[in-house]
Amino acid sequence: MTAPARLPVEGPLPALDGATAWLNSAPLTPAGLRGTVAVVQFCTFSCINWLRTVPYVRAWAEKYRDDGVTVIGVHSPEFPFEHDEQEVRSALEGMGIRYPVAIDDDFAIWRAFDNAYWPALYFVDVEGRVRHHHFGEEDYERSERVIQHLLRESGVGDVDEGLVSVTPDGVHLAADWADLRTPETYTGYARATGFAGPGGLRLDRRSVYVAAERLRRNDWALVGDWTVRARATTLDEPGGRIVHRFHGRDLNLVLAPGAEGPVRFRVRIDGGLPDDARGLDVDEQGEGSVVRPRLYQLVRQRQPIADRTVEITFADAGVEAYVFTFG
């Protein structure tokens, strides 16, 4: 796949001056970026869709840096804990992200771009014009060809026309799209779907939930003493469970620890130990701990992929559950 012979002009690079902070760089501006090819990506650190793009964008930043390409991350937070600059800094450092990142806590840059997606890529030429964009994952070859096209257009000679060699693993591994049949599932009532527990969700009040008699594919339920709020669901007493019937290779859950510190959990799949279907954040006994707010990979099935029921039991109170994602 190659970039088109000509790329349309989509408009000028919007202002970047709404950032509340910058990581890895002094504040950048459209005027200061003139003369360089820029790649701007919107992200939020617990988003699985963005996490799966990280190896590619990081590799582009390294490969084309000496050719005059500036990769810029714009961190626009989805969840409350993603407003914590230290958590953002720690998460990005852990992924080896060394290119400039604008902290967009107030969504000022998001609005300036009229953006609506995590992740979203915008490709900017040396004259400060947006020439291409891509929303979501994948399309990596075309995106890199666009970078090469803009470099050649700017007069850079001997642009390496090869593609970066990337071997993603862990949470960065691309989804098994052909066998993925469960959509992301929010536990906060503002976006919750698929709840199948008796009596439904009780909003903004502490309630005791009992086990559902039966879960169909893509159903989920709570067991124990929980408070369901708009953005997240919080466990009020130790021993609570979340159960989900899903179809996909991976099951992830965005979690945050309680005010009292780390929260221990245990994972069971179809009632037994996860064994070789355990995710990165689960040990041989199906146990793990929520230490920091982030995405936790709880299940990674081997082929063949089948409908499975995962049950996560929390030994400590205070955990906040945000969204299930799948791969």
From TrEMBL:
<dbReference type="Pfam" id="PF08534">
    <property type="entry name" value="Redoxin"/>
</dbReference>
<dbReference type="InterPro" id="IPR013740">
    <property type="entry name" value="Redoxin"/>
</dbReference>
<dbReference type="InterPro" id="IPR036249">
    <property type="entry name" value="Thioredoxin-like_sf"/>
</dbReference>
<dbReference type="InterPro" id="IPR050553">
    <property type="entry name" value="Thioredoxin_ResA/DsbE_sf"/>
</dbReference>
<dbReference type="Pfam" id="PF17991">
    <property type="entry name" value="Thioredoxin_10"/>
</dbReference>
<dbReference type="InterPro" id="IPR041017">
    <property type="entry name" value="Thioredoxin_10"/>
</dbReference>
<protein>
    <submittedName>
        <fullName>Redoxin domain-containing protein</fullName>
    </submittedName>
</protein>
<feature type="domain" description="Thioredoxin">
    <location>
        <begin position="1"/>
        <end position="152"/>
    </location>
</feature>
<dbReference type="InterPro" id="IPR013766">
    <property type="entry name" value="Thioredoxin_domain"/>
</dbReference>
